């Protein structure tokens, strides 16, 4: 009798779809719990940015100013016509960057340049959290509205990773606020170490927010490039490499790039790996310039990457990452000895956000 009853209930669930409805209700409940957590993180990020704006003596309504930039967007250029695609994309990115910088300078004229740069990346982190919250809410409401259990199931399965991503951006805010070096700054840290090894390098701002320092090492002349610190900026390494190569009339033996790279799960943080190509994670224009000038002048392009997770990349730099500086410099020295000659000119580029790292 009991077995028959269980069988009938089971068949009822299967043929009426009631089991899917119950499962969907459980998924929706769980997603809403996670969404509350993400909303709390997004609101806290917003509060921290508003506090910084008020502390900096903002002119006007801080809420209105922040709302303007939280949902600010850039429309991609037409990709069906590849002619000058990188130039068009760079043009749009430059306009966006100038809008941000000018907007902050107008409402916070008494704030220092580096503090404004740090505030800019705080806004970027708050913007990322706002986007995550709005997207999750959108797909949840869409799934409920259309009774789409497949959409809800996919969202539920992705929620642990989405929440982790949101928590990572939230953790990064304090590092940006305090101006602490982050994991992504390992490239600039290597560059700064090279600039200050064996005496102070001759340094100058070669392009906007980007420094080049000239040092002698292993009887080679190194042109070391990094973003201008200690404010939170990545500079324009591609434009800087292009300009330095042009100044040297193409007489460059090698370009060596250093950057952080996302590790796979199970890999060791701070592991140093060598390869070839332009190690830079920009949207395209800076990488394109480096590759183009290397091809034009037949300059070999080496890369050294330091492995780390996304969380490690945008939160305060861990010891395992900072300890990699010495290993990277050892690999640079080895490359100089094995793949260049005495008297050669080599460009070394430390790619990454230079927050908390001067030159």
Radius of gyration: 25 Å
Mean pLDDT: 91
Biggest sheet strand order reads 1-2-3-7-4-6-5
Question: Main β-sheet: number of strands, strand sense, barrel status?
Answer: 7 strands, mixed
Number of helical regions: 12
Broad structural category: alpha/beta
Low-pLDDT stretches are none
- Into which percent range does the helicity of residues fall? 55-70%
Please give the number of β-strands: 7
Beta-strand residue fraction? 5-15%
Element pattern in H and E: HHHHHHHEEEHEEHEHHHE
Write structural notes for this entry.
This protein has 12 helices and 7 strands. It is of the alpha/beta class and 359 residues long. The protein folds into 2 domains: 2-178, no CATH class; 183-350, Peptidyl-tRNA hydrolase (Rossmann fold), CATH 3.40.50.1470. It has helices at residues 2-16, 18-55, 62-70, 85-107, 113-146, 149-178, 186-195, 237-247, 285-296, 310-314, 319-322, 324-339; strands at 202-207, 210-217, 220-227, 254-262, 272-276, 301-308, 345-350. The chain is globular. The relative contact order is 0.13. Strands 1-2-3-7-4-6-5 form a 7-stranded mixed beta sheet. Helix 2 runs parallel beside helix 6.
